C-alpha cells in the first residue's frame, strides 16, 4: 500500500500533490518492507492538466505494484481514478504514516 509522507514521517495531507510517497509491504499484520520515493507530484501537478496528472499517478502506482492507498482524504476525481484501477482506499488517517499502515495491516 502507498501513503504520501512528510519529512517528519507524518502523512502528507494532499495525496495528489505529495513530494514523497512510501510503499509498504505488509504481511501478518506487520510492515515487512518500506520504501520511500521522491515522486514530486507537488511540482508535476502545476506543470500539467489534472487528467494527465492523474494518469501519471496511475502509471506510477501500477509500476510500483501498489494495491491500496492510505490518505487523509482525496478529491472526488482522484478517488474515482484510484478505485477504477482497483485500489483499496483507506481514508481519514492522520499522524505517523507507518502507524496508519500498521493499523490497516492488523485489521486486514
Automatic annotation (TrEMBL):
Q: For the Dinitrogenase iron-molybdenum cofactor biosynthesis domain, which residue ranges apply?
A: 11-104
Q: Which SUPFAM superfamilies match?
A: Nitrogenase accessory factor-like (SSF53146)
What lineage is on file?
Answer: Bacteria, Bacillati, Bacillota, Bacilli, Bacillales
Tell me the Gene3D superfamilies matching this sequence.
Answer: Dinitrogenase iron-molybdenum cofactor biosynthesis domain
Protein name per the record = Dinitrogenase iron-molybdenum cofactor biosynthesis domain-containing protein
Entry's Pfam families? Nitro_FeMo-Co (PF02579)
Amino acid at each position: 500500500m502507498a501513503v504520501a509522507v512528510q519529512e517528519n514521517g507524518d502523512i502528507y495531507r494532499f495525496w495528489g500533490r505529495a513530494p514523497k510517497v512510501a510503499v509498504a509491504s505488509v504481511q501478518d499484520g506487520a510492515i515487512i518492507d518500506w520504501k520511500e520515493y521522491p515522486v514530486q507530484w507537488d511540482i508535476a501537478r502545476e506543470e500539467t492538466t489534472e487528467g494527465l496528472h492523474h494518469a501519471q499517478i496511475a502509471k506510477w502506482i501500477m509500476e510500483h505494484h501498489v494495491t491500496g492507498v492510505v490518505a487523509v482524504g482525496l478529491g472526488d476525481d482522484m478517488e474515482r481514478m484510484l478505485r477504477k484501477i482497483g485500489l483499496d482506499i483507506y481514508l481519514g488517517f492522520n499522524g505517523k504514516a507507518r502507524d496508519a499502515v500498521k493499523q490497516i495491516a492488523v485489521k486486514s
